[in-house]
Amino acid sequence: MIKRLFDFTVSLGGLILFSPLLLFISLWVKLDSHGPVFYRGKRAGRYGNPFAIFKFRSMVTNADKIGGPTTSGDDPRVTKSGRFIRRCKLDEVSQLINVLIGDMSLVGPRPEIISKVELYNEKERKTLQLRPGITDWASIWNSDEGGVLEGLPDPDAAYEKVIRPRKMDLQLYYLQTRNLWIDIKIIFCTLRKVLDKSYVPQELAEYPSFDALRAEALKYAAEQSSVGDAAGSAS
User: What is the pLDDT of residues 46-104, one digit of tens each?
Assistant: First the structure.
C-alpha cells in the first residue's frame, strides 16, 4: 500500500513536471517518421497478466516484423529521433503513465515480452510477484544494452547467453531485499547513472562492467561463428 501510494504520487508529479519535455518528444517522434507517438507493445505484468506499455516510439512502425525483440546499438530499425531518445533513456519517461494507472511501479523488474516470460523457469517466475518497473538494479548495471550487442550477427542469442542470467539474478535479489528505502536508493542511483555513466553502486561492484560484457558478447559471437563455419565445412 505504501509503495503504491509512493508510485502514484511520484509518477503524477513527474508527469506534471516533465509535461513540456513529453510534448516536445511527442512532436519530434511524430514529425521524424510515420507512425504513432507511442509504442504500445504487450508486456507481462504482475502475475504474468499482459498490459500495453507506453514507450515513445523509437523504431519504425513495423519493427517487430523485420527483426527480433532485442535491439542492438546499430539496429537499422531505430529512427533518428529514436537514437537520441534511447541514448538519453527518454523512452522510459512515458512509462510514468503505466505507473500512474497501476500497470507498473517506479522500481521493479523490467517488463518482458510475453513470449520470453513463458520460458521462465520456476525460480525466475517468482519475479512475477512484483509489478514491473521503470528501473531496477539490472537497469543500472546494464544501462547500455544496445552498445553491448552492437554489431553482433545474432543479438538475441548473445543477450540470452551474456546478459539475461545476470539480469535475472539481480531481479531476484531485488525481490528478496525490497523495501521503500531500497526503491528510493535505486531511483537516485538511476538518476546518477544517467548523469555519470561510470558510476557503479556498491551493490553492483562484483558484476561485469560494460567493457567486460562487450568482450564476452564478442567472444560468444566469434565462438558461434566458428561453430557455424565448422558445420558448413563438414557438410
Answer: 999 999 999 888 777 766 666 666 666 567 778 888 888 877 778 788 999 999 999 99
The rounded distance, in Å, linking the Cα atoms of 117 and 3 is 24
Contact 105/3 with Cβ under 8 angstroms? yes
Position 23, amino acid: L
Q: Which helix (H) or strand (E) holds 32?
A: helix 19-32
- Identify the residue whose cell numbers are 517488463: 111
> Could you state, in chain order, the average pLDDT of each consecutive group of 10 residues for the chain (235 residues)?
94 94 90 85 94 86 65 71 80 92 96 92 95 96 88 89 94 96 96 91 94 94 75 57
Number of Cβ within 10 Å of residue 223's Cβ equals: 11
Residues 6 or more apart whose CB falls under 8 angstroms from that of 38 comprise 54, 55, 56, 57, 94
Q: Which residue's C-alpha cell is 538519453?
A: 88
Question: For the CA atoms of 140, 86, 20, 111, what is the dihedral angle to 10 degrees?
Answer: -60
Burial letters for 8-39: b for 16+ Cβ neighbours within 10 Å, e otherwise?
A: eebbeebbeebeeebeebeebbeebbebeebb
Give the whole-angstrom CA distance, residue 154 versus residue 192: 31
- The amino acid present at 74, given as its one-letter code, is D
Which residue type occupies 52?
A: A
Best CA proximity match to 96, nearest among 88, 86, 87, 106:
106
> Do 56 and 37 form a contact (C-beta atoms < 8 A)?
yes
